[in-house]
Amino acid sequence: MSTDTPGIDPLQALRAPRDPACDVFLTGPVFLDIVFTGLDSAPVRGTESWARGMGSSPGGVANMATALARLGLHTSLAAAFGDDHYGEYCWDALEQGEGIDLSMSHTVPGWHSPVTVSMAYEGERTMVSHGHEAPAPTGTPAPAFPNCPPRARAAIASLAPGRSEPWVAAAARNGALIFADVGWDETGRWDLDALPDLAHCEAFLPNAEEAMRYTRTDCPRAAAHALAERVPLAVVTLGAEGAYAVDGRTGAAAAVPAIEVEALDPTGAGDVFVAGFVTGTLADWPLADRLAFAGLTAALSVQEFGGSLSAPGWAEVAAWWQLIRTCESQAPAALERYAFLDDLLPTTARAWPLRRAVPTIGFRQ
């Protein structure tokens, strides 16, 4: 766990002796992210641009894993790591720095780590990535990675048209709640039936554009209600307008506006939102509280640069809440919306904002 995060366990009141040791399982590629911020405009061909800020951190699926771990969830990650210095750094940062269980991960000899360079400017980002697909692990007996996931309360999947991941069904059979996001459909068909693993999902969390395309609707809220006919929980993120969710079991809906912040780098904000929503769902909070918490964690993340670097822990949440309660200009409705934090947070918090990011892969000890 991150060393500046208070020891808050959001599931403490729900834990029982026979519960799985793992709260959330996830798998996917880990990148080394190099993020440049403070660019006044997009880079121009034939010129050199200087950035005022820079950070390096594990990226890809590591963004989500870090966000979950910093919120106090016992997180297990199955991923391939290169045997170069980048891979060594990412493994150490996740296992030693964040307390993430990497027992199902492995290092691939002779395979270099995927790398993404991200440039943030004008509230947007441009990314350049390079990498090769990791070879499948071999050995006798057959390795568990990743198709035999550990018993867990939840698992997070990224859906893609025409692709089914055997581990998703295995995790669902073992009792895990499956939370899924989705990427842009390059086929252009936008067919929900082409997402076979959606049938195993507890919650589906697309953005507004994805949701409307998949449901053939022209309104994000209508899209959420249509999706709730396919999954128990449909959550549609609305960018600057917040998020809207529908509980398909009860028909209940909730809408929470976004928190207005000055965005430094949006990298990983979607992953942080999902991590916040998973946390609230496993803790059995009301639907509106889950949305509000997910939106808050995402808003805190965009004020820092980097994906996993910017994921907030309870220290940042507590410091934000402390600041908001002492701000005379804050609307009563906002204070009421986040009042549920009083029962979760310590009475003292460190100075806000906190800075985790460092500009290098790692200083020599």
From TrEMBL:
Q: Which InterPro entries match?
A: Carboh/pur_kinase_PfkB_CS, Ketohexokinase-related, PfkB_dom, Ribokinase-like
GO terms, molecular function: kinase activity
Q: Which residues form the Carbohydrate kinase PfkB domain?
A: 51-312
Span-the-membrane segments of this chain are none
Q: Which UniProt keywords apply?
A: Kinase, Transferase
Protein name, UniProt field: Carbohydrate kinase
The organism is: Streptomyces griseus subsp. griseus (strain JCM 4626 / CBS 651.72 / NBRC 13350 / KCC S-0626 / ISP 5235)
